[in-house]
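Input structure tokens:
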């Protein structure tokens, strides 16, 4: 599979930057070796302890904060530093590569994208800060002006990182760039702002107290990073529990094997195409996994679990039964609402319920239509947009199927 041109361009820029920085550093030698070693170790520890959860916006906040702090370092215990932007990139690259070795050995990806994003973001901050500081611009302005300029630089660096992260995710997944960028920008209000603030504070603390300030200011972020790893593990277990519960209809013979999983995967893709946020996508995915659980209350199973062809009253009754079951499991109430309302008139439904309704109907129709089923199912949904399915959801479904070649083959 060929890589998108944008991804190739980003990786090529990062590679050229790394080679140029390494060549310049080897020619000029390391300035301030103690500081370089201290910040390199900090980035290394951050990389070694980073997590790889798919829904995590910053995998190594300690490493990112350490790299940013080194890029913004102008003094060490009152003594001016003379390392430039090229040395910053070299030190961060070397530490990041060493810290990525265990992750590469375990086959965890995408390490290349993570490194490219780190190199380009750090170089942006260093190129903006180091030349100005070397010419004495920050010292001349001083006071509030210095703080405002540093804040502006942090904001620009965070925006640069968000754009890079969204671009790489867009190339990797082919999801729309706009919703991805909005999601990354939302993340700046959480862990992103903590990384920027910690990086700036560490640089200012080292300027006054020396390198001994690094462990003091990095320890809270390291503990936060470890806590988020546990949180990510708990979320993974929670999702696996929901997926297992959703398979109850398949085990009992009410629905075909893999139906809930296929509906959930396609619903999430459609939701992302329509610009849902990450929390909304999580609710949508859980609701899609459990959308048929109301069939467990039926005495006589629906043939092949195909509820899309039932009378509206029967669809609504099964949906309400499903919502009642979901509420008893302790799952988020928002998931139960989506399950309960999937059979309502689409004009009265929340967007997540519209998506589950359309995707479920598509999967059932495509499965039962034989050869050419996906195209026939999509055409049936388009013809029914006047009263049964939301037109914007059906068109989004068509875009996703065209873009990702998802035809959801039936499984017995």
């Amino acid at each position: 599979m060929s890589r998108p041109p944008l991804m190739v361009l980003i990786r090529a820029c990062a590679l050229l930057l790394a080679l140029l920085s390494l060549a310049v550093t080897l020619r000029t030698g390391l300035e301030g070796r103690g500081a370089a070693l201290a910040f390199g170790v900090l980035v290394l520890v951050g990389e070694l302890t980073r997590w790889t959860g798919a829904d995590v916006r910053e995998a190594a906040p300690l490493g990112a904060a350490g790299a940013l702090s080194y890029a913004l370092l102008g003094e060490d215990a009152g003594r001016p530093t003379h390392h430039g932007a090229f040395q910053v990139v070299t030190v961060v690259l070397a530490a990041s590569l060493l810290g990525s070795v265990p992750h590469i050995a375990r086959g965890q990806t995408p390490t290349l994208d993570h490194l490219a994003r780190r190199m380009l973001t750090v170089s942006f901050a260093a190129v903006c800060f180091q030349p100005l500081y070397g010419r004495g611009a920050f010292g001349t302005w001083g006071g509030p002006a210095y703080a405002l300029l540093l804040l502006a630089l942090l904001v620009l660096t965070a925006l640069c990182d968000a754009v890079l992260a969204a671009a790489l995710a867009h190339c990797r997944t082919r999801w729309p760039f706009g919703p991805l960028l909005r999601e990354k920008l939302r993340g700046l209000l959480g862990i992103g702002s903590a990384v920027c603030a910690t990086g700036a504070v560490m640089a200012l603390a080292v300027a006054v107290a020396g390198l001994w300030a690094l462990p003091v200011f990095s320890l809270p972020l390291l503990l936060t990073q470890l806590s988020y790893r546990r949180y990510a593990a708990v979320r993974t277990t929670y999702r696996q529990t929901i997926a297992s519960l959703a398979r109850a209809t398949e085990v009992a013979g009410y629905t075909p094997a893999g139906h809930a999983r296929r509906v959930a995967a396609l619903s999430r893709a459609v939701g992302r195409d329509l610009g849902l946020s990450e929390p909304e996508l999580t609710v949508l995915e859980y609701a899609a996994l459990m959308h048929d659980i109301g069939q467990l209350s039926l005495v006589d199973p629906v043939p092949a679990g195909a509820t899309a062809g039932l009378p509206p009253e029967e669809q609504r009754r099964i949906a309400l039964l499903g919502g009642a079951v979901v509420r008893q499991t302790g799952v988020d109430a928002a998931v139960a609402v989506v399950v309960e309302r999937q059979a309502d008139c689409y004009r009265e439904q929340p967007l997540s319920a519209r998506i589950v309704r359309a995707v479920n109907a598509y999967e059932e129709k495509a499965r039962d239509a034989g050869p050419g089923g996906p195209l026939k199912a999509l055409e049936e949904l388009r013809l029914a947009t006047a009263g049964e399915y939301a037109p914007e959801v059906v068109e989004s479904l068509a875009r996703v199927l065209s873009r990702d070649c998802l035809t959801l083959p039936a499984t017995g």
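The chain has 17 helices and two strands. Confidence is low (pLDDT under 50) at residues 406-412.
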